[in-house]
Amino acid sequence: MEFLKEIFTVLINSIFAQNFVFIRFLALCSFVGMTTSMENSIGMGGAVSFVTVMASVISYALYYFILVPLHLEYLQTITFILTIAVFVQLVELYLKKAVPTLYRAMGIYLPLIATNCMILAVTLLNITEQYSLMMAIVFSIGASIGYTLALILLAGIRIKMRYITIPKFLQGYPIIFIAASFIAIAFLGLQGIAR
Amino acid sequence: MSPFIVTVLWSSVILLVIGIVFGVMLGYFSKILAVHEDPRIVKIAELLPGANCGACGFTGCANLAENLVTGKASIEKCKQTSNGAASEIATILGIEIDSSNFSKKVAVIRCQGNLDNATQQVYVKDVSSCKLATTLKIFNKACLYSCIGYGDCVDICPFEAITMDKKGLPVVNHSLCTGCGMCVDICPRNVIVLAPLEKQVMALCVNQKKGKEVKDVCKAGCTTCMLCVKKCPKNAIRIENNLPVMDRNLCDLCGICVEVCPMKTIRLINEK
Q1: Which residues does residue B141 pair with via DSSP β-bridges, in sequence order?
Q2: Nearest CA distance, B91 vs chain A (angstrom)
Q3: In this complex, which of A66, A94, A104 lies closest to B33 when CB atoms are compared?
Q4: Which of A191, B107, B192, B222 has a C-alpha 20 to 30 A away from that of A155?
């Protein structure tokens, strides 16, 4: 029971209370760039989720089974980036084969998942928070759900925004940032829901 | 060996091993997930302008290239292909094309109804776009064919090639215009046309009325006096919808029509 409670706490914390986009302010580039349509944002969320979960498992294994026994903990950043880059390549290959329309729609943002700071943050936080492998997987799933949620929320608002009159000085990115900041404030109200 | 060198070597070796393992893995997956693309698609995509403007109706140049290879589209769809690129694409595809369709085109504003020429009627302050003015049917100028002058074409132009002059008419910068045709589509009065960037004569008026009706609303509108038709030594001018149309195959750019036109409607355009 205690174990289930812990899993639930980590999951809810990583989705809402410590949402990677709205509270930790990570992965903002793709958050603004890929929310032009619902299809794009869901595709991006799926791609990033896959990379995050796989990379956190593999990097966890690399850290505890290779780097720690060899006393090379200082190599964690570079090995984790290597892991992430490999999975991004894998996703790219897969999308090009299976969903070419999404592959073309995502354009430059697909290879840029490699530099998505949320994924590196998840892998590094798995280590610094000293999670077990099970917890690391739960944490990375929570983080990717939170990221996808953030993309879908902003994409929904941006689709609605096409039909309203916006003052000229706010057109384009300014109004998007304002909308994003309001969502962030709303998420601030969820602080401390899971302890 | 000093401990420093040992550390550097040791970490490099470990990184190298991890890298090789990952590399082999990726190589294996790229074999499994390989996409068999027609090599012609990549070649054609390189020859296309690469602006991804979407004017051809496909999502981008790569998509057009795909449809060219499968035969679902023709190269004429791309309004920005240069003559040389188009013929190269045709050789790749093994088809014949008419190369005269691919000279560079620019937008031409077929209206001279600026503040001096056109008769002004009302001025409404809050109307800010041609589209809104058309919906409300409130126009500054009395001419119902003229440029409305709120600059929807200026706003839509993705290359910032159109600007408004001081007298309220849009001006096209030929070096920036790519001939994408977005202004042609947005103009509610169909004042803008695409014309090849070559020296030619054109009547800069789209008013389909005759005589006095035109003269009342504009000092530079075509009154359909037929003088240009009569004076043209090559018989290259005919009248369609009460407007002179020049046959570019017959016209030798003598400039007589420009001189005789009493309203100064016919002009020599696209001079380099």
Answers
A1: B120
A2: 27
A3: A94
A4: A191
Q: Tell whether A90 is within 8 A of chain B (Cβ).
A: yes
Residues B137 and B194 in one domain: yes
Answer with the one of B102, B126, B154 that is the final residue of a domain: B102
Q: Is the dihedral of CA B204, B207, B212, B217 positive or negative?
A: negative
The answer on B151 and B49 residing in a single domain is no
User: What is the three-class DSSP state of B179?
Assistant: coil
Q: Which of B102, B118, B134 is the last residue of a domain?
A: B102
Flag whether A75 is in a domain.
yes
- Round to whole Å and give the CA distance between A138 and A125: 13
Q: How far is B6 from chain A (nearest CA, A)?
A: 12
CA distance B5 to B1: 7
Closest-CA residue in chain A for B12?
Answer: A75
Q: Which of A44, A39, A3, A50 is nearest to A21 (CA)?
A: A44
> Is residue B21 helix, strand or coil?
helix
Please name the amino acid found at residue B186.
Answer: I
* Domain ranges, residue B164: 105-269
- Residue A94, in any domain of the structure: yes
d(CA B267, CA B256): 11
Cβ contacts of A17 within 8 Å, gap of 6 or more:
A23, A190, A191, A192, A193, A194
Task: Identify whether residues B202 and B255 lie together within a single domain.
Answer: yes
Cβ contact A97–B11 (<8 Å): no
Q: What is the pLDDT along chain A (195 residues), one digit of tens a residue?
A: 888 998 999 999 999 988 999 998 998 888 888 888 888 899 889 889 999 999 999 999 999 998 899 888 888 899 999 999 999 998 888 888 888 878 877 777 888 888 888 999 999 999 999 999 999 999 999 999 999 999 999 999 999 988 888 888 888 889 999 999 999 999 998 887 866
| Chain B CB within 8 Å of residue A36 CB | no
User: What's the rounded Cα separation, in Å, for the pair B82 and B102?
Assistant: 6
**Given an 8 Å threshold on Cβ–Cβ distance, is A82 in contact with B25?**
no
Quote the pTM value: 0.59
- Cross-chain residue pair A70–B10, CB shorter than 8 Å: yes
The per-residue pLDDT for range B47-93, each reduced to its tens digit, is 877 777 767 777 677 778 888 888 777 777 777 776 677 777 878 87
**Are residues B251 and B123 located together in one domain of the fold?**
yes
Q: What single-letter amino acid sits at B97?
A: I
How many independent structural domains does chain B possess? 2
